[in-house]
Design brief:
Largest sheet: none
Subcellular location: Membrane
Family: Belongs to the OXA1/ALB3/YidC family.
Pfam families: 60KD_IMP
InterPro entries: YidC/ALB3/OXA1/COX18 (IPR001708), YidC/Oxa/ALB_C (IPR028055)
Helix content: over 70%
Protein name: Membrane insertase YidC/Oxa/ALB C-terminal domain-containing protein
Order of helices and strands: HHHHHHHHHHHHH
Length: 346
């Protein structure tokens, strides 16, 4: 593979040669990359309405898309991708895979472990809280007899005392439930930023300068196997289908790793996420393969991450407290759950 500097010199030679030849007006020289070369991304056979709509939406550079494309986080992520690619000399498919693994290992894995840490602490507090609840009930009943409280006064005082005691436990253990949501506050923006940054590379945004055109050219030959051109969609459907299957596997893993029966709300949300995972398959089949490669790699990492954090030794490594709901043999529990589900379906 040519270095970026070599490609730069080659591109400059072609540009100046084009100018010299065209000045003689003897040839109708077509440049290798015109300013509108972004239209080349649709050079595939699967032209259908959904793909055209998704591609048109992906090209949009107005409103929210323009704001995201030119935002500071996306700019930094885009520069990081380019720097990582130039420094390592890896092809673009490997650059996308390696940066995804690197960012998820350094950002989302520690936050996921911290989420489990907070949730475990909260679960362990519930045992202590149950004793406090019994004590508060006794004290409330005594107060009703001594001070002749009516039901409204007794219930209000009891609820206020209950909230105060719970808050005291939360402060003591430093495990506010909001801290368990930190993973989402980092993972979702990172996913969006990386997706938009890769989109910028594909469509030479926000500025179609020489470097952007060179990156575009590198992406056209930076794939592997069934996706040699990362600008085009995955005609084999391997990545889109894998993306959907992995997301469904994550949902089922979360469901099978629980010891308690899911509530109605949990069942509803599970079905919503299942439907969304299936809905994303045709979307993934309509965008450039480099984008789907990132999505699939990120989801695969998430599946492995969730499986690892079920293991008691891994949980102890991350100092996640032991709880009553923790599975001693989580993987066997999941296998048994799968067998039970299939036997019921039969």
């Amino acid at each position: 593979m040519l270095s970026r500097r070599c490609v730069l010199h080659t591109f400059n030679f072609v540009r100046y040669s084009r100018h010299a030849v065209s000045s003689n007006k003897l040839y109708n020289f077509q440049p290798l990359l015109e300013n509108n070369s972004r239209t080349c991304t649709a050079t595939h056979n699967r032209q259908y309405s959904l793909q055209s709509s998704v591609e048109s939406l992906a090209r949009t550079q107005t409103g929210l898309f323009k704001t995201l494309s030119e935002s500071t986080p996306v700019e930094y992520v885009q520069k990081f991708l380019l720097t990582f690619h130039d420094t390592t000399g890896l092809p673009w498919w490997a650059t996308i895979v390696c940066t995804t693994i690197l960012l998820r290992t350094s950002v989302t894995l520690p936050l996921a472990a911290y989420q489990y840490y907070i949730l475990a602490k909260i679960e362990n507090l519930k045992g202590e809280m149950s004793l406090i609840v019994e004590e508060l009930k006794k004290e409330t009943n005594m107060a009703v007899k001594m001070y002749h409280w009516d039901e409204k006064t007794a219930r209000g005082t009891y609820n206020r005392s209950l909230r105060k005691q719970w808050n005291n436990l939360i402060v003591r253990e430093n495990c506010h439930p909001f801290k368990a949501s930190l993973l989402l506050w980092f993972q979702i923006p990172m996913w969006v930023s990386l997706s938009v940054a890769i989109r910028n590379l594909v469509y030479m945004l926000p500025n179609a300068d020489l470097d952007a055109k060179l990156t575009f050219t590198e992406l056209t030959v930076g794939g592997f196997g069934f996706i040699p051109n990362l600008i085009e969609v995955d005609a084999s459907f391997i990545l889109p289908v894998s993306f959907g299957i992995i997301n469904l596997a994550i949902i089922e893993l979360q469901l099978l790793s629980k010891t308690n029966s899911p509530t109605k709300i949990q069942k509803f949300l599970t079905n919503v996420f299942r439907g969304f995972s299936i809905f994303m398959i045709p979307i993934a089949a309509s965008v450039p393969s480099c984008l789907v490669l990132y999505w699939t790699t990120s989801s695969a990492y998430g599946l492995v991450q969730n499986m690892l954090l079920l293991s008691p030794p891994v949980r102890r490594f991350f100092r996640i407290p032991k709880t009553d709901s923790e599975l001693q043999n989580p993987y066997q529990h999941i296998v048994n759950g799968v067998k039970t589900r299939f036997s019921i379906n039969k």
